[in-house]
Amino acid sequence: MLFSGKVIDVHRDVQSGYTMGACIIAPLSDDEKEEGFESAAGGDTRRLKIPFQNEYLYAAYTDEEGIVETEIICTVPDLISILGQDGEAIGSQDLKYGLKVNVIGMPAHPLWTETEMGLKVGGPAYFGLSMPWKSVGKYEMPRSVIADFNG
């Protein structure tokens, strides 16, 4: 879990066949909190900015105004997903003001991160971003559902 809050700004544009833009997510206040969503811990007022080019490119904490990025917390090729109140993934085309969301990050497979070619074609530089790859954690092989429930 990277962040929980509501979308307070979305801008998008179509360039060269891609939907490009960014969204800003603000923490929920105590009176906005619902089941499945967290209010800001300790009165944290940081916001989360998520730029996209069809897919989400990186997640960064910002100042209270959502302007100055203060900390990059995850970049491609790790997967950033924005989930709605029902837990279903929300694509960049469906983001809108006031939507309450949870943002999660999932580590990329080592083929993307432990090879020069993987980061070259799926890392931040490929998308024109001048930042190093920032992972949310170590990739773990998925467990077989059959093996989990067969014992």
Task: Describe the protein's architecture and organization.
The chain is mainly beta. It has one domain (3-140): Beta Barrel (CV3147-like). It has three helices and eight strands; from the N terminus they run ββββββββααα. It has helices at 110-113, 116-122, 145-150; strands at residues 3-15, 18-27, 47-53, 55-56, 58-62, 69-75, 79-83, 100-106. Strands 1, 2, 3, 4, 5, 6, 7 and 8 form an eight-stranded antiparallel sheet that branches. A hairpin with a 1-residue loop joins strand 3 and strand 4 (55-56). The longest helix has 7 residues, at 116-122. The chain is globular. The two termini are 30 Å apart.
Question: In brief, what are we looking at here?
Answer:
This protein has 151 residues and is mainly beta. It contains 3 helices and 8 strands, in the order E-E-E-E-E-E-E-E-H-H-H.
Q: Key terms for this structure?
A:
151 residues; mainly beta; CV3147-like; 11% helix; globular; 8-stranded antiparallel β-sheet; 8 strands
SSE blueprint and pairings:
Elements: E1 3-15, E2 18-27, E3 47-53, E4 55-56, E5 58-62, E6 69-75, E7 79-83, E8 100-106, H1 110-113, H2 116-122, H3 145-150
Antiparallel strand pairs: 1-2, 1-8, 2-3, 3-4, 3-5, 5-6, 7-8
Number of domains: 1
**Residue windows where pLDDT falls under 50 for at least 5 positions:** none
Summarize model confidence as the mean pLDDT.
91
Binned strand content: 35-45%
CATH topology, by name, is: CV3147-like
Task: Give the CATH architecture.
Answer: Beta Barrel
Q: Roughly how many Å is the radius of gyration?
A: 16 Å
Helix and strand content put the structural class at: mainly beta
What is the N-to-C order of secondary-structure elements (H for helix, E for strand)? Answer: EEEEEEEEHHH
- Per DSSP, the total helix count is 3
First-to-last CA distance: 30 Å
Percent helix range: 10-25%
How many beta-strand elements?
Answer: 8
Question: Rough shape?
Answer: globular
Characterize the biggest β-sheet: 8 strands, antiparallel
* The CATH class: Mainly Beta
